[in-house]
Specification:
heterodimer, A: 523 residues, mainly alpha, three-stranded antiparallel beta sheet, 19 helices, 44% helix, globular, B: mainly beta, 58 strands
Chain lengths: 523, 1021
């Protein structure tokens, strides 16, 4: 009997030993340890896809910051206060805690981190891997370009940080420019970046090409006022003939139909793929375009236009009258490029679009953006609220390269070339060619050609024009009732001040990182 | 000793298997008599020949007769009475049994055993069946509210089928503070499927020492649930029935038509012309009337039970049908539960048994608690100018336009169109559209139970082996109908999603209890191990309409994945995840003369790889406790006349929590990231990146608690008092989403980065007495709570919790209560402009993040409950109330970017600034900085409340009448449940909350409580 008890007790407790290995539950979807990854071309490409995904993720804040800070648009939205962070940027009432300022800053470093992973971990011993590394260098430079031009002397993160390095202090603007040039030169000189086979080679252009890296380097030179170097390298891009100005309907240039056109330098790829709408890929949503479209619930749309314009959009980024006036001054009220870019309320009414009686559009002076109007055909699922739009996110187009080159030559190069370049732009805009070109001509041309395309603010700052153009920004905020523009809101303080030449280091970073020095005027 | 027990075993075995003739071979004597108690004859008492299975049960007159071996001992017993033994001389033996001296030697269930209440050295609260029965609560957690100190119940949503949140001694964690539930030894994360009628007792292990035997999962307290077992005695059949009528308890005041027009025009939000041209001049819709109705709930419970000395069983079947207060059947909860419990002493040394709860449920829900689509919020936000429906020939302009544009306007069943407001647009539609445009159904089953054997090889030693299990399945489906809420909320095509999941959990636990008394020394010891494993498997599919409906036909008989339209965007997902845990534990106790007691325990737990790296997987959780029964000391003798019992106790212990750990958070392995198209067409490269920057140092979250308590009984046990003070520190809280700095770039792994302290007093006081036929009792309890975050890693200033439309409003920060409300300090209305002004705390001259500060918190200073009972002859009365004091509510009903929404009258309208009322204390309509005002203390309300949960009057029919109809007990009752609420909160319900951790006290339109008129009966055969 006793034996039996012992046996039973032993049986019960036998389980108690040796089952710790039941706890070793494998991780699903695990792609392996970091040290085993980044070995093959395929793995390098997967790491690069992750980098491009991060780039896609930061695009909206990148776009918001640059365009709201400019004099192209009002913040707009459903009503006053719809998006205060955006209004504050647009009206120069933002503080160090602005979320767009913070998210853009963190986002740029997220992109740098993805680039550093590739640069450090991928051995460029095959053409595929070498191309991946070169692209990573391009993107690191691309991010550092906006960091140095928008935020100034931020930390230079040129490697994967160890936990002890997370609170790096400022570097200098000179170090950052040097680093940008170094990355771009290495990317170009590696010979790993392909060139397009022709201007119409859309596929190669879906990734960074050698010419794109050269264009970026040229832009970096222009910003440093190294005009000779800039002219030289931008000429190389132009002379390569791999890019051309788009000659179709100008008002369709920024639409899905002309994704990866001959003019596209850098675009974030979107696809007309209903699978994207599933929750598995919902992170690929394009809320950006929802923000961008007209405030459709305040509008009545009748006739043909109701069949082509998408509904349910939120009405941010409404053109300012001053922008419209600049167009009229150059092109007249019926200019081809003007009417492809902006429409007045009267023109809209003729098309069958008007503000509903009793309603108003917030942050609006009666001018509607036309070149980026949200078309049903751009919507992945036409007729539904456009959470998924397959228009590529435009980052840089060839017109900018021509205008940068024109500027570089005006500032100390070949005036003939400058004239040629600006007249290419004017020709496409159906304007008479100039006989001679000044810096002022380039500035005016660029404002109109690239309005609401994320270049204006940095240009104004580097030209020293920001104080004059942006001084009144935020003084009064209009609402458009359909019949009139009422200036319904105002700010006690507003407008561009000297401190706005640089954005503040985000307050969050200042709180977290004791080694950082705040920018001038933001302390 | 060994020989003796062996002989008994042999004998018992022989008796079981030997034919009766063997027994007859012995010399037999006849015994008979009557068993009585103080009230008269006792039916169903058992009389057993000691050491044998020979015995009898008394009849209705308490009489028995049987033959027993000469010289045998008779044992007379009845559950709840002190057994008596008597030598079996031939002849009549009348016995009077005495009730077990009540309370003193009650047992309480503790982890892996039971303990005499008198020996308890920890802080354990008990909730008895009388606190659960005949109430209109539908789940067991709700029974804890107000009945015991230190246990807070948060009924954030009162939707049918929603479970309340239980907090034992405060709020310990930034992630989850849910207690561990153990039902008949089986660990569960939720007990809402158990019918309260089937519960014999619930014990809340509040202090660390009591809970420490559950180690890694006990950091937030443990609730032990013991389901009913059959009692030895006569078989019993009971039927309980309850029927309730429920209505919305509190109707918040919103603007009527005239006030709405005033407000909108004052603020130029909408022009008067526009308002008047879209209003018929008469409509003044009360959306609470449109959306809510009086609904009903019914409950049935049938139970069968019987038992004898060898075994017992308890079988029950319950049905609950709760139709919520939203009009129609969009919010319903139906549940069928069964309990099958039985055990049998199959050998003198072996008892086996099984407990089982089976549950099947079906529910439909409406959207709530969300600023982008709560039906409940939409009731408060819809303008009063729009009627609920329009006849098809009478549609207003905006609806005609929508209809002409092919928008799918929804209709009621009678051909009328649900209205679409021309004024208010947003993520919300009107309540009826919100109710009907989504059909969200869920259902499933749970089978929870155990199989166990108690093996007694030698005296004092019980070895238990127990297999616990829970098998669950869920099925969900959501149909989103083509609908047009307003221009911002359009769903043009029928969409459908469905999913099912199963989870299988089992635990195998083996433990040995040893208890012996040697003279004045008692010792007990327990040692054991536990292995748990669970797996969860789900499959979901969804169909999204792509330029046409996602299903072949919009008809309920087509609402299945099988009928997908060819064009539908289809998505599937599914995975199986597993977790496991291995534990060893032990406990020793020593007691001297019923006067001094000390106990110590230790548990070691190992987490699986998904939770912690293998190098850190083991956690060790020790505890000690001690008690001193002062009333047993000789010096106390003079006071014993008044104070019959006085015990001082103290405990210390550590516990853990695993809630925040799962999903390989420490890992740096490569994980799937977004996809990206590098090539033409819909071809993608799968992005891959490190899942996080890694943290091999990740540890358990650990709670450490000191408890000092005092129990006393005074004045002949009429007055009972229990006082506890505790100090609980939780450290190494797991914090994710940390950013050491913005330049890091990658995802930083969670770190152990925070400590929280909870501290408080708990007092439970009871008085019971009887005056002739009248008996009454008063029980009250009160618990205070001081909650504070005492440490947060310096890399984090504060952790955001709940967001309200892009802005974090609750934060976790050192020096403040957990997830306090953070916002601006409203400094009054500028008399010149009517705009709100705020305190410029950072002196910057303008409003910025530097002006944000503490503006309230949802944690009450104290919670309390009081229960009065009275009985006179057959009549009984119960009044029960519970309250909370000092908690705040952040009103997040009105989103500032939706100015045209209706407004809570007391919040936005009354005494607002107008040019005529420049001393108004509420900003003018559409003032500047209303976005700041929304995040200021102006929106924070005192959430203190007192609710009378129950006023019940019952009548039990006299037994002599009932006997004639073969009924042994019949009671009928009626009750007003949740009928009276005292609160200053202007919203629906002061208990509203979006969630129980970061969203405590945030009201975004949660499903409010209803008041109920209840009728019920209890019948017993």
């Amino acid at each position: 009997m006793k034996m039996k008890h012992i046996l039973l007790s032993a049986l019960m407790l036998i389980f108690a030993v040796g089952c710790e290995n039941y706890l070793d539950i494998p991780k699903h979807g695990n792609m392996g340890g970091q040290d085993d990854f980044y070995k093959t071309d395929e793995e390098a490409l997967q790491a690069l896809a992750s980098l491009y995904g991060t780039w896609d993720g930061i695009y909206s804040n990148w776009f918001y910051a640059k365009n709201l800070l400019s004099d192209d648009v009002f913040a707009g939205g459903g009503n006053r206060g719809d998006n205060t962070s955006m209004e504050q940027l647009n009206e120069y009432t933002f503080g160090t805690d602005n979320t767009v300022v913070k998210d853009l800053y963190a986002g740029m470093y997220a992109l740098i981190y993805k680039a550093n992973l590739i640069i450090e971990k991928v051995e460029p011993d095959t053409p595929g891997k070498a191309r991946t590394v070169a692209e990573a260098k391009f993107f690191r430079a691309w991010a550092n370009f906006d960091l140095v031009t928008l935020y100034g002397p931020v930390p230079k993160v040129d490697h994967l940080l160890a936990p002890g390095e997370y609170r790096m202090g400022n570097s200098t603007v000179e170090q950052l420019w040097e680093f940008i040039e170094q990355d771009l030169n290495e990317a170009i000189d590696s010979d790993a970046l392909p060139s397009k086979s022709s201007a119409n080679d859309a596929e190669t252009g879906m990734r960074v090409t050698k010419e794109v890296a050269q264009a970026m380097l040229g832009k970096a030179y222009v910003f440093q006022e190294k005009y000779a170097e800039a002219a030289a390298i931008l000429d190389q891009v132009i002379d390569s003939k791999k890019y051309e100005l788009f000659k179709g309907d100008y008002d369709m240039l920024l639409h899905s139909a002309n994704n990866n056109s001959c003019e596209a330098m850098l675009e974030i790829q979107k696809r007309k793929d209903p699978e994207q709408m599933s929750w598995a890929h919902y992170e690929n949503n394009t809320m950006f375009y929802l923000m961008y479209g007209w405030r459709s619930d305040r509008l009545e749309m009748t006739g043909n236009i109701a069949k082509v314009i998408e509904n349910g959009t939120w009405g941010f980024f409404n053109p300012r009258k001053s922008l419209y006036d600049a167009f009229v001054a150059m092109e007249g009220a019926n200019g081809y490029r003007l009417s492809s870019t902006i429409r007045t309320a009267d023109q809209m009414e003729a098309l069958g679009v008007k503000v509903q009686p009793g309603q108003y559009l917030s942050g609006h002076e009666g001018y509607f953006i036309w070149k980026t109007r949200l078309l049903q055909e751009d919507n992945v699922s036409p007729g539904t609220q456009p959470w998924f739009v397959w228009t590529n996110y435009r980052v840089m187009r060839y017109a900018e390269v021509l205008l940068l080159a024109a500027e570089a030559h005006v500032q100390g190069g070949d005036a003939t070339k400058a004239l040629n370049y600006i007249n290419q732009i004017r020709d496409r805009a159906r304007l008479a060619p100039l006989g001679a070109v000044t810096l002022d001509d380039v500035k005016k041309e660029k404002r109109l050609e690239l309005c609401l395309e994320s270049v204006r603010f940095q240009d104004l700052v580097r030209w020293g024009d920001a104080e004059s153009f942006l001084a009144e920004q935020g003084k009064q905020i209009p609402a458009f009732t359909g019949a009139e523009t009422k200036y319904m809101w105002s700010n006690p303080t507003y407008g561009f001040k000297a401190k706005h030449k640089l954005l503040p280091i985000p307050r969050k970073e200042m709180e977290l990182n004791p080694n950082m020095k705040q920018n001038e005027g933001w302390q | 000793m060994k020989n003796n027990s062996t002989r008994k075993l042999l004998l018992a075995t022989l008796l079981l298997f030997a034919p009766a003739t063997l027994l007859l071979a012995q010399t037999k004597v006849k015994v008979w008599g009557q068993v009585t108690d103080a009230n008269g004859p006792m039916a169903g008492a058992s009389v057993i020949e000691n050491g044998t299975t020979n015995g009898a049960t008394t009849d209705a007159e308490g009489r028995y007769a049987l033959s027993v071996g000469e010289g045998a001992t008779l044992v007379f017993s009845f559950i709840g009475y002190v057994s008596q033994e008597m030598a079996a001389t031939p002849g009549e033996h009348n016995v009077m049994l005495a009730e077990e001296s009540t309370k003193l030697d009650d047992v309480v269930v503790v982890g892996y055993g039971v303990q005499k209440k008198s020996s308890v050295t920890g802080a354990i609260s008990q909730v008895k069946p009388e606190d659960m029965q005949n109430r209109s609560i539908t789940n067991a957690q709700a029974a804890l509210q107000g009945k015991t100190a230190g246990v807070q119940i948060i009924q954030g949503s009162s939707a049918p089928g929603a479970s309340p949140t239980v907090r034992v001694r405060g709020f310990s964690s930034n992630v989850s503070s849910n207690p561990l539930y153990v039902v008949d030894g089986v660990r569960l994360s939720d007990i809402s499927g158990i019918d309260p009628n089937d519960i014999a007792s619930m014990e809340v292990l509040k202090d660390a020492a009591s809970a420490a035997i559950y180690g890694a999962e006990a950091g937030n307290g443990v609730v032990l649930v013991t389901t009913k077992k059959g009692a030895a005695g006569k078989g019993k059949l009971t039927y309980d029935f309850q029927y309730s009528w429920q209505t919305l308890a509190n109707v918040p005041k919103v603007l009527n038509a005239e006030q709405y027009i005033d407000y909108m025009t004052e603020g130029s939000i909408l022009s008067r012309d526009f308002l008047l041209s879209n209003w018929d001049g008469a409509t003044n819709t009360s959306w609470t009337d449109v959306a809510f109705e009086t609904s009903t709930m019914q409950k049935h419970n049938v139970a069968f039970t019987n038992g004898n000395e060898q075994g017992n069983y308890y079988l029950s079947l319950s049905y609950l049908d709760n139709d919520g207060i939203v009009k129609g059947d969009a919010d319903t909860y139906k549940r069928l539960t069964a309990t099958v419990n039985g055990e049998y002493q199959i050998k003198p040394w072996l008892k086996v048994g099984s407990t089982n709860q089976l549950e099947k449920y079906d529910m439909r829900t409406v959207a709530e608690g969300n600023e982008y689509g709560s039906l409940l919020a939409s009731v408060l936000l819809m303008d009063p100018l729009t009627p609920d429906v329009y006849a098809p020939n009478n549609l207003p302009m905006n609806m005609l336009t929508a209809l002409n544009n092919g928008q799918p306007l929804l209709k009621d069943g009678k051909g009328n169109y649900y209205s679409v407001s021309p004024f208010f647009t947003g993520e919300f539609g009107q309540p009826l559209i919100m109710r009907d445009n989504n059909v969200a159904k869920s259902g499933g089953f749970n089978v929870t139970g155990s199989l166990y054997g108690d093996f007694k090889p030698v005296k004092g030693l019980v070895i238990t082996s127990r297999l616990g299990y829970r098998l669950s399945g869920t099925r969900t489906s959501t149909v989103s109908l083509p609908s047009y809420n307003n221009s911002e909320r359009i769903n043009p095509y029928l969409g459908y999603s469905a999913g099912s999941s199963t989870s299988i959990y089992y635990q195998w636990e083996n433990f040995a209890n040893y208890a012996r008394t040697f003279g004045r020394h008692s010792i007990n010891a327990m040692i054991g191990m536990s292995f748990q494993k669970s797996s969860y498997n789900y499959v979901n599919g969804s169909l999204t309409g792509n330029e046409e409906d996602a299903l072949k036909k919009n008809d309920p008989i087509f609402w299945y994945l099988n009928y997908a339209a060819a064009s539908a965007t289809k998505a599937v997902s599914g995975e199986e995840t597993e977790s496991a845990k291995l534990s060893y534990f032990g406990r020793v106790g020593y007691e001297f003369a019923g006067r001094y007691m000390i106990q110590a325990s230790l548990r070691a737990d190992a987490a699986d790889l998904a939770q912690l790296p293998s190098t850190n997987r083991w956690g060790y959780f020790p505890a000690v406790s001690a008690g001193w029964v002062i009333s047993q000391e000789s010096f106390f003798e003079p006071a014993r006349k008044y104070v019959s019992n006085l015990k001082l106790r103290a405990s210390w212990g550590q516990n853990g929590s695993l809630a925040a750990l799962s999903g390989y958070l420490y890992s740096t392995d490569m994980a799937l990231d977004r996809i990206y198209p590098f090539f033409p067409g819909n071809n993608y490269i799968q992005g891959t990146a490190p899942s996080s920057m890694g943290n091999p140092e990740l540890r358990w979250e650990t709670s450490e608690q000191i408890d000092i308590g005092l129990d006393a009984r005074l004045f002949n046990d009429r007055l009972t008092l229990s006082v506890d003070w505790y100090d609980k520190k939780t450290k190494d809280l797991l914090v994710s989403g940390t950013t050491p700095s913005l330049i890091v770039g990658g995802t930083v792994s969670p770190i152990n980065a925070g400590n929280v302290s909870n501290r408080g007093w708990e007092v439970e006081l009871g008085w019971r007495d009887r005056v002739g036929d009248f008996s009454y009792s008063v029980r009250g309890n009160i618990a205070t709570l001081k909650n504070k975050v005492t440490y947060l890693d310096p890399s984090l200033v504060r952790l955001p919790g709940e967001y309200f439309h892009n802005t974090a409003i609750t934060y976790f920060e050192k020096g403040y209560p957990i997830y306090y409300f953070r916002g601006y300090k409203f400094a009054g209305v500028d008399p010149a402009t009517g705009d709100p002004t705020f305190e410029d705390l950072d002196g910057s001259g303008d409003l910025s993040d530097g002006d944000l500060t503490y503006i309230g918190n949802a944690i009450p200073d104290f919670t309390y409950g009081i229960t009065l009972t009275a009985a006179w002859k057959g009549l009984d009365l119960t009044v029960f109330g519970t309250g909370s004091h000092g908690n705040d509510i952040f009103n997040c009903i009105n989103k500032f970017d939706r100015q045209a929404s209706n407004k809570l009258k007391e919040v936005f309208y009354d005494n607002r600034w107008t040019p005529q009322n420049t001393s108004g204390t509420v900003p003018r309509a559409n003032a500047n900085n209303m976005d700041k005002y929304q995040f200021s203390d102006a929106m924070v309300y005192d959430g203190s409340f007192f609710k009378i949960k129950q006023i019940q009057i019952g009548y039990s029919f006299p037994k002599q009448w009932l006997r004639k109809i073969y009924v042994s007990n019949l009671r009928i009752y009626c009750s007003l449940d949740d009928y009276f609420t005292f609160s200053k909160y202007p919203g629906f319900d002061p208990e509203a909350a979006t969630n129980a951790t970061a969203g405590m006290g945030i009201d975004k339109g949660s499903y409010p409580g209803s008041k109920k008129v209840v009728f019920g009966l209890n019948i017993e055969f």
